[in-house]
């Protein structure tokens, strides 16, 4: 890890207009680090992720991102065109529902290749080759490259969405409950795959999950959210094995009892 954070978040606040959202969140994220965000439904996890991905703009606070070139940009002040370019080249976003992150009318190979074209690739043979490589990497059989995602199982769709995100070599990948909504055995396989990819590619990841088992397996560090605020953070094992806050203790014990 380098000494320079890839992302710096300071006093980030988002108000939906009804007094809800997130409030005063600050943290830094270093290259190669996996940050888990946990908390009950409505605690603000998705709102925070959307802010990091630039899908919504904060009510107040700072969000700075260090580009591959070393340049530091203020994500809030970035003109729309540059923000979109950054989203295509440096960021990945894995949605809980793969249908939100895939183009259902386009073949599996097309879904992966399209992302490469969006970041500038033009040579058809090379694009198809890279797509085939990535489908293999996420354990989708060669013979399925021309099939539409609608013919895939939920687990395959999720693996395809991951390939579509990773093919262009993003530096920061945001994941919103990537294993949610899948059967337990499918979840386990996907988690294994994700863990391998994160380690092999040295990805920097922010992963939102309400599943502490997922957080334990993937995250180096955890932030616990409640009512739009971060109430506890630290190394994953430390937070889960020795939670300081009563709310985190409850979260951990309810999962252990489940
Ligand atoms: N579009 C919206 N309009 C108004 N309030 C919203 C909107 N989306 C979320 N909120 C409120 O903002 C707060 C944070 O919601 P958010 O969806 O970020 O939580 P979450 O932790 O991701 O929950 P979940 O695990 O259920 O997705 C909640 O109080 C929620 O009711």
From TrEMBL:
The keyword Nucleotide-binding applies. It comes from the Bacteria. Residues 7-252 form the ABC transporter domain. One of its GO terms (biological process) is organic phosphonate catabolic process. Keywords: ATP-binding, Lyase, Nucleotide-binding. One of its GO terms (molecular function) is ATP hydrolysis activity. PROSITE patterns: ABC_TRANSPORTER_1, ABC_TRANSPORTER_2. Pfam families: ABC_tran (PF00005). This is Phosphonate C-P lyase system protein PhnK. The lineage of its organism: Bacteria, Pseudomonadati, Pseudomonadota, Alphaproteobacteria, Acetobacterales. The gene is phnK.
């Amino acid at each position: 890890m380098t000494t320079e954070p890839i992302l710096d978040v300071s006093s980030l606040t988002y108000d939906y207009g009804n007094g809800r959202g997130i409030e005063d969140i600050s943290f830094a994220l270093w290259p190669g680090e996996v940050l888990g965000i946990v908390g009950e439904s409505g605690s603000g996890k998705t709102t925070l992720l959307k802010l990091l991905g630039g899908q919504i703009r904060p009510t107040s606070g700072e969000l700075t991102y260090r580009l591959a070139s070393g340049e530091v940009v203020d994500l809030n002040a970035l003109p729309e065109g540059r923000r979109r370019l950054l989203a295509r080249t440096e960021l990945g976003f894995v949605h809980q529902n793969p249908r939100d992150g895939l183009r259902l009318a386009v073949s599996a190979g097309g879904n992966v290749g399209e992302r490469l074209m969006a970041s500038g690739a033009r040579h058809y043979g090379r694009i198809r080759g890279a797509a085939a490589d990535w489908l293999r990497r996420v354990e989708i059989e060669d013979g399925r490259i021309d099939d539409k995602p609608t013919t895939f199982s939920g687990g395959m769709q999720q693996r395809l969405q991951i390939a579509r995100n990773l093919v262009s070599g993003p530096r920061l990948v945001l994941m919103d409950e990537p294993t949610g909504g899948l059967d337990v055995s499918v979840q386990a396989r996907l988690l294994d795959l994700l863990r391998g990819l994160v380690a092999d590619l040295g990805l920097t990841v922010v992963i939102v999950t309400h599943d502490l088992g997922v957080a334990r397996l993937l995250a180096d560090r955890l932030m616990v959210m409640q009512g739009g605020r971060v109430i506890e953070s630290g190394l994953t094992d430390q937070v889960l094995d020795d939670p300081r806050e009563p709310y985190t203790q409850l979260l951990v014990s309810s999962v252990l009892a489940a």
